[in-house]
Amino acid sequence: MRFLLFFSFQFSILISAQLNNNQKVVSESLFINWDNTFEEPKNTVLELVCPKIDTVKIAVIGLGNRGAMALDRLPQIPNVKIVAIADVDSNKVNNCLETYFDDKGYSIPFPYYKTDDWKLICQRNDIDLIYICTHWQLHTPIAVYAMEHDKHVAVEVPAALTIEECWRLVNTAEKTRKHCIQLENCMYDFFELTALNMVQQNLFGEIVHVEGAYIHDLRSLNFHDTYYWNHWRLKQLQVNDGNTYPTHGLGPIAHVLNIHRGDKFNYLVSMSSDQFGMNKYAKEHLPDSSKYYDVDFKKGDINTTLIKTQKGKTILLQHDVTSPRPYSRLYTLSGTNGFIQKYPKHSIALEPNAHSSLSSNEIDSMLLNYQPSVLKEIKDKAKQVGGHGGMDYIMDYRLIYCLRNGLPLDQDVYDAAEWSSIVELSRKSVESGSAPVQIPDFTRGNWNKVKKVSYFIK
Ligand SMILES: NC(=O)c1ccc[n+]([C@@H]2O[C@H](COP(=O)([O-])OP(=O)(O)OC[C@H]3O[C@@H](n4cnc5c(N)ncnc54)[C@H](O)[C@@H]3O)[C@@H](O)[C@H]2O)c1
Q1: Those residues with Cβ within 8 angstroms of residue 104's Cβ, 6 or more apart along the chain or in another chain
Q2: From the alpha carbon of 245, which atom of ligand 1 is closest?
Q3: Ligand 1 pocket, 185 CB below 6 A?
Q4: Fewer beta carbons under 10 A from the terminal one: N or C of the chain?
Q5: pLDDT, tens digit, for every residue of 217-234?
Q6: What is the residue with the minimal CA distance to atom 6 of ligand 1?
Q7: How many C-beta atoms surround the C-beta of residue 366 within 10 A?
Q8: Cα(12)–Cα(161) distance, rounded to whole angstroms?
Q9: Alpha-carbon distance 19 to 8, whole Å?
Q10: Residue 196: count of CB within 10 angstroms of its CB
Q11: Cα distance between residue 179 and residue 409, in whole Å
Q12: Is the CB of 152 under 6 A from ligand 1?
């Protein structure tokens, strides 16, 4: 509460200062600041090491699109046991039992059906990891409760919706010394893993600017009557502007920039177009459906956010789930010696001939040469199991591998907080005429302790 009062007071003062000054100067005094002393500093969980777990016993909560896919993948990883599954829709629970467990030779998980059963699951003492695949509003409450009951947490994206929730995740992970990571699968796509390896081999020199995005026309799914439980995703677009889903675009490029491993996000500015596409879509496709007709969506169709880092790097981040256009996460890296881009077309350009891209044959062989060893070992299995072309399997595989070997996980709770914080911070900037907004240092000053991102192997 102290935090909220502090924020709302400071926010209103600074915004009025900015409007009075006609937005002439972007000086530090005009920043919207956040009170980083929300709780007393705790021990850091950077590169947290926890005891090895021989067989990782998992509960999956939320068995919609993502949760059901996870139940297809996870049991295929050796030394994984699914102990419990839960959803408020009993058909989904029973279908999952039938589809992924009957006649498969795996032990049968205990089913849960009630709204608050996730609490009973977290209270069990035969579970190591709570794997959360519900709608966004339950991510932080379940994650915090799970850590408080001595469980590691892997939570779908975004892990949190507000700055207060981000701090709750960090504070609880530091207090309990449990792992708490997002299930940010886009880190593990073949291109992103290989490009990160290229960056770490210094192929592009100093990375100066990066771009990421979630550009995915979700109109038909968002307006679908049953695809998302209780229309949770559409409802977000009704009430919030800004970047409501930042982590797929931001996660991979944040690791390229070693965020909180030698650099940190300092501040952002964010701007949204007005809302044009969603009402149009509702009117054209759902003419008889009064519940969507003339709904006043707050979400502007296209949001663009710019982030500046402590070390002077820039990040462009976009979000658009409304426009009729091809899927893209941009994934563009620009360095002092070269450039790499994933969307809309693979491109690599290197000094001294960086005016044009390498040919597609040259790019393909380069991507093959720079594949990290972990990818070489599991790519066939990943492609066979699938899940967004294999990246979902690689994500789960790495999570289980690190837990089994007592290694730090590839992502940590600070990643979860930093990437998720953009939801609220971008909204605040949009609401205040694109004013610069400071991004909290969730490591509380420890952002330079670790010098680069590492994905550990034994
Ligand atoms: N990483 C990715 O590529 C990716 C892709 C799509 C969605 N997601 C994320 O995955 C999450 C789930 O998305 P989805 O598409 O599966 O949505 P969904 O609506 O299909 O699934 C959510 C499920 O949660 C269940 N649920 C609601 N309240 C519950 C409760 N109290 N206890 C247990 N279950 C409850 C619902 O019945 C539903 O089955 C979201 O956070 C979304 O952002 C990630």
Answers
A1: 75
A2: 43
A3: yes
A4: N
A5: 999 999 888 899 999 998
A6: 66
A7: 17
A8: 21
A9: 17
A10: 20
A11: 8
A12: no
Tokens 């989904």 appear where? 92
Q: CATH code at 297? A: 3.30.360.10
In a domain, 348, yes or no: yes
Q: In sequence order, which ranges of 240-390 are alpha helices (DSSP H)? A: 247-256, 277-285, 360-369, 373-385
Q: Quick one: tokens of 78?
A: 């050796």
**Least confident piece of the model among 137-146, 290-299, 315-324:** 290-299
157 lines ligand 1 (CB under 6 A): yes
Do the domain assignments include residue 104?
Answer: no
Quick one: which of 382, 303, 335, 32 has its CA closest to 205? 335
For 67-111, write each residue's pLDDT tens digit.
999 999 999 999 999 999 999 999 999 999 999 999 899 999 999
Query: Whole-angstrom Cα distance, residue 396 to residue 403?
Result: 11
Q: pLDDT, tens digit, for every residue of 404-454? A: 999 999 999 999 999 999 999 999 999 999 999 999 999 999 999 999 999
- Does residue 136 line the site of ligand 1, with CB under 6 A? yes
Ligand 1 pocket, 62 CB below 6 A? Answer: yes
3-state helix, strand, coil in the chain (%, to 5): 40, 15, 40
Rg, Å, the chain Cα set: 22
At residue 9, the pLDDT reads: 29
What is the atom index within ligand 1 of the atom nearest the CA of 65? 16
Residue 47 CB less than 6 A away from ligand 1: no
Hey, what are 402's tokens?
């690190």
49, with CB counted inside 10 A (0-12, 13-18, 19+), is: middle
Mean pLDDT of the chain: 90
pTM, to two decimals: 0.92
- Atom number of ligand 1 nearest to Cα 67: 16
- Domains identified in the chain, total number: 1
DSSP type of residue 137: G
Contact 241, 180 (CB under 8 A): no
Whether 293 maps to a domain, the answer reads yes
| Phi and psi angles of residue 174, each rounded to the nearest 5 degrees, phi first | -70, -40
What residues make up the domain containing 423?
A: 187-373+412-438
Nearest to 420 by CA among 440, 400, 434: 440
Residue 88, domain member (yes or no): no
Q: How far is the CA of 65 from the centre of ligand 1 (A)?
A: 6
Q: Which helix (H) or strand (E) holds 58?
A: strand 56-61
